[in-house]
Hints:
By secondary structure, the chain is of the alpha+beta class. It has 3 domains: 6-110, PAS domain (Beta-Lactamase, 2-Layer Sandwich); 112-212; 218-365, Heat Shock Protein 90 (2-Layer Sandwich), CATH 3.30.565.10. It has 10 helices and 12 strands. The longest helix has 63 residues, at 112-174. The chain starts with 5 loop residues before the first helix and ends in a 5-residue tail after the last strand.
Amino acid sequence: MSFGDAELRSIIDHLLEGCQILGWDWTYLYVNDTVARHGRKTKQELLGRKMMDVYPGIETTPMFEVLRRCMETGTSDHLLNEFLFDDGSTRWFQLSVMAVPQGIVIMSLDITEHKRDQAEILRLNADLERRVNQRTEEIKTVNKELEAFAYSVSHDLRAPLRAVEGFSRILDSEHSEKLGKEGKRLLSVIVSNVRKMDQLISDLLSLSRVTRTSMNYTLVDMKHLVSMIAQEAVSGAEKAIELKIGDLPAVSGDPVLFRQLWINLISNAVKYSSPREQPVIQIDGVVKENAIVYSISDNGVGFDPAYSHKLFGMFQRLHRDDEFPGTGVGLAIVRRIVDRHHGSVSIEGKLDEGVKVSLALPRETAK
């Protein structure tokens, strides 16, 4: 390398990247300011001296082997080198080595902060993985407790309910004449509340199953599934319902959970549109840019939109039992099923103007 060009040498002297030239005898022929700073030496301490004299023991390092190979064969190379200083501290350098007529040129870049950032990211990732594993174990424990709770609800709580209902029937059939009008009324209240409690238990068990059951993804023919559920619900209604089912694209998901979802939505639509002279239920689907959206709307009694945020919560109801029976769990189950499919659900409505529920599933799950 010729240093006759003062302007070029000035540029190299002030590069942010280190530049050094070692002669065939390992003597420093040239170092710029950055190399001196990297090595914590002055230029005077380096120039004209051999590398092994300036940094004793360097010839035993893997880095020196790369330099020696380049010196002997002319093979260029790149490497990362952790350099140990006399005070025990270290810094990381990215080195590029190439042969020149005078010996070898070494270009160096201090990447210590980058390596520290990498180490911190690895530490954070490891900590995150540990937390995730810990949280996973906690969730497994909670799921086991939920399973035990579901078993207890199914067996331990339902047994006394059945006993109450059974004895109530015995009273009604064998001791009716002794009860009197008020006694019979009170007995009917007991039976009604027992059945309500039994339905609440059933809904809670359904929510528990939705929450803890494993997902079984398959391609679901949504048109076929919805049509079957809707026809069955409409056929059992007290009055004729106009049912309109549009295009419902197939989607990848759990068919059992989707069945539960549509049973809840369609039964709600049938229930709340029943007061109308001509109930109408419409179910549609459309593929949008990032999602496939299904919707179900009815022309029923609707609700005050100020309370729409409550409808997907547990036990949230906007109507009295004597108006419309229910436990307030159905829409909570719907939301949980949609959540488990990584989608979103929303509801719109106005008093006496019906309701529209929309389900959006990620587009990549649509088939």
